[in-house]
Amino acid sequence: MKLPPSSFGCPLDSLLRVLAGPWTIYILCRLHNNGETRFGQLKRQMPGISSKMLTERVRSLEKAEIIFRHQAPTIPLQVTYGLTTEGRELTTILDQINTLADRWQGQETKTVNTTIQVKETKRRKGVSNDPGMPPLKKARITRKN
Fold first, then answer.
1. N or C: which end of the chain has fewer CB within 10 A?
2. CA distance linking residue 120 with residue 137, whole number of Å
3. What is the pLDDT of residue 46?
4. Are 17 and 6 in contact (CB under 8 A)?
5. What stretches of 1-145 show up as alpha helix (H) in DSSP?
6. How high is the pLDDT of residue 1?
7. Are 61 and 67 in contact, with CB atoms under 8 Å apart?
8. Res. 133 pLDDT band, cuts 50 70 90
9. Within 10 Å of residue 87's Cβ, how many Cβ atoms?
10. How far apart (Å, rounded) are the C-alpha atoms in residues 137 and 124?
11. For the chain, which residues make up each domain, given as ranges?
12. Taking the CA of residue 5 as centre, how many other CA atoms within 13 Å lie in the half-sphere pointing to its CB?
């Protein structure tokens, strides 16, 4: 694998600099999920990415030997991109990070929902200590005869 040099002399820093580029993780995920993919197919799978940005990211990943470029000797020219051995190894780690992110996202959602539920319960009972959530005022019921 050819990673760009790190000013800190740290291989992890070099790898993270390659991965931190915009759209990089999406490109790796698409290649991981779909196998070898042509440039146009890759672009259609990622709405919002420009051809210029996709070209830059693919070249960066190819230079780092995370993905490969295969050019078929056909007319018209057919170029496909796929994961190298290192790229497949990296997607194993990305899968683990994705699992962690899903779990953390689920905990965050659960925490937010629980907090809102507790605040609403306290507010309904008129015992809220939260200045942003004043207790409900008791309603007066009057009868018309």
1. C
2. 14
3. 94
4. yes
5. 11-19, 24-34, 39-44, 51-63, 85-125
6. 72
7. yes
8. very low
9. 21
10. 9
11. 11-125
12. 1
Q: Radius of gyration over alpha carbons of the chain, in Å?
A: 26
Overall residue count recorded for the chain in this entry: 145
| CA pair distance 25, 34, nearest whole angstrom | 14
Distance of alpha carbon 12 from alpha carbon 23, whole angstroms: 19
Contact 80, 72 (CB under 8 A): yes
Between residues 60 and 133, the one the model is more confident about:
60
* CATH code for the part of the protein at 11-125: 1.10.10.10
Question: Is the distance from CB of 3 to CB of 36 less than 8 angstroms?
Answer: no
CA–CA gap between residue 78 and residue 50 (Å, rounded): 20
**pTM metric for this prediction:** 0.68
Strands 67-72 and 37-38: unpaired
Contact 9, 45 (CB under 8 A): no
Cβ atoms < 10 Å from Cβ of 25: 16
Spell out the residues 6+ positions from residue 28 whose beta carbon is closer than 8 angstroms to its own: 61, 66, 67, 83, 87, 90, 91, 94
